[in-house]
Amino acid sequence: MTVVYALGIVAANRRFVWFDELFTFDTARARSLPQMWMLIRRFDFQLPTGSLLSRFSMQLFGESKFGLRFPSMLEFYVASMALFLYVRRKVGISYAAVAVLVLWMGEAFRYATEARPYALLLMSFSILLLSWDVATTSERRSVALWGVAIANLGMFSAHVFAPLSLLPFLAAELVRFRRTHKLDFVLWAALLLPAVLIAFYIPLLHGYATIFFPPVIEASLASVPIFFYKAIDVVSLAALLAISAALLAPREEPPLTSAYKWRREEPFLFGCLLLNPLLLNILLMRRHGALWDRYAITTWAAIYIGMAILLGIRLRSNRSAGYAAAATLLIVFCFQGVLWPIASQPPLENASVLASVRPDLPLVDAGGVTFFEMNHHEDPEMLSRLFFLKDRSLAMKYTHTNLFEDRGFPDGMKGYFPISANVAPYTDFIHQHREFLVLGTYEAPEEWLLHKLKDDGAQLTWLGTYRMPYVDSNLYVVKVPASK
C-alpha cells in the first residue's frame, strides 16, 4: 500500500498550486518569524504550524511543489497508517486496508498534496484515536498516554476548529467513567492540557470575524445533509464493488468467534464525531462565516472507519471477504488515483494563451482569487497589463462580501507578497480606459465587476472560454459609454 500511496501522490502532485496554498507559500518565505505571524494575523487566519513546516521543507527540497507540499504528503501517510492500526485492532488487517483505501478514494485524499493544515489535523486526530484506544484498553499504556498528549497538541496547533474533534473524546471518557466508575485523571490531563494553545486562536478569530462572505457560501443547516451525501457519494461505486466482492468471497467455517464487539464509549465517540458538521454550521452561522467540507475532515475519517468496522462485524471478520473487498478497492484506486491522473493531459500553469489576445488593451481580472494566482504564475509582461479594480461599496452592494476589499487585499500586500500587477479604484480606471478586457465569471458569488459594467450600460462582448488553470476563464472585451 505504501508504494500505491507514493504513486498516487506523484499523480496528485501535478495539481496547480492554487490560492490557499499560495498563502502558505508566501508566509513560509517571510523574512522572519514575527513577520510570518503578522502576515498570518492580517491575511490568512491560519495557525502558523503549517507555514513553519513548509518553510523547513522548502529549505530542504527547494521552493517547488514538492517542497511546499511534502509535509502534507508525510502527514497524510502517517494518518493513514494510524487509522490502519486502529481498525486492525478491531476487525483485522484486511478491513483496515478497506478503511484506508476508502479514505484515499474520498475527498480527503486531495489534502495529501495540498499545502494547508488539513493533513496535519487528520494525522493528529488519527494518532489521538489510536493512542486513546490503546490507553483505555491496555495496562501498559505510558507510551499511549504520551501519544494522546502529543497528538492532541498537534491537533490544537493545526486548526482553530480542532477543539470540535476533541469533544467526542471527552464525551467518550464520560461514558467510560459511567461504565467503570473510575475517573482516569492522567488521560484527562493528556486530553485537556494541550488546550492552552487556544490562546493563539484569539487574534485569528478576531481577524476572521471582520470578513463578510457571500450569502451563498455562508454556513447553514441545509449544508449538513449535503456534507454527508457528498462523503458517501464520492466513494459509493467503489464501496458497492467492494461489498459485492466481500459477499461473493468464500465463507470461513466455522465462523470466527473473535469478531469485534463495541465498547459502550466507542459508538458514542463516533456518533459525536458525526455531529461535527452540524456544530460547525451552528458556530459559523452566528458569525455569518463560510463552511468548507475540509473543516470536518475528521468526520470523513470517522465515516470511512465506521464503514470498514461495520463491514467486518457484519461478516464476522471473515478474512477472505475482507481481502476480496480490499483488493477490489486497491484496483479501483490504482485506476482512479494513479493511472487516470498520469494518463490525463498535464495541468496548465499559466495564462499564456491570452498573450496574443488584444495585447494593446488592459486586462482586468474580476476575481480576487485569479488575480492573486496570476501574480504568482504569470510573466512580467502579462502582469504589466493586468489590473484588479476595487470599490468596497460596490462589492457590498452586488456580492455582500468584503473578501477582496478589506485587510489590504491586494494593494496592501505589496512588500510582503509578490503582487506586481496593478490595483486601481473602479471609478478612476473607468475614466481612464474606455475599452479593456475582463477575465471573469458571471456566476462567481464574490465577483461584482461584470454585473456593475452591465448595469452601467457598457458593451460586453464575449470572446470565449480559454483553457487556463484559473477559476476565471471567460474573456470579454468591454466598451464603456462616453457618458460614464
Protein described:
It is globular and about 80 Å long. The chain is α/β, with parallel strands linked by helices. Helix 4 packs across helix 5. It contains 22 helices and six strands.
Largest sheet data: 6 strands, mixed
Order of helices and strands: HHHHHHHHHHHHHHHHHEHHEHEHEHEE
The assembly state of the depicted protein chains is single chain
Main structural class: alpha/beta
Spell out the key features of this protein.
single chain; 484 residues; alpha/beta; 2 domains; 6-stranded mixed β-sheet; 6 strands; 6% strand
What's the quick description here?
With about 475 residues, the protein is α/β, with parallel strands linked by helices. The protein has 22 helices and 6 strands.
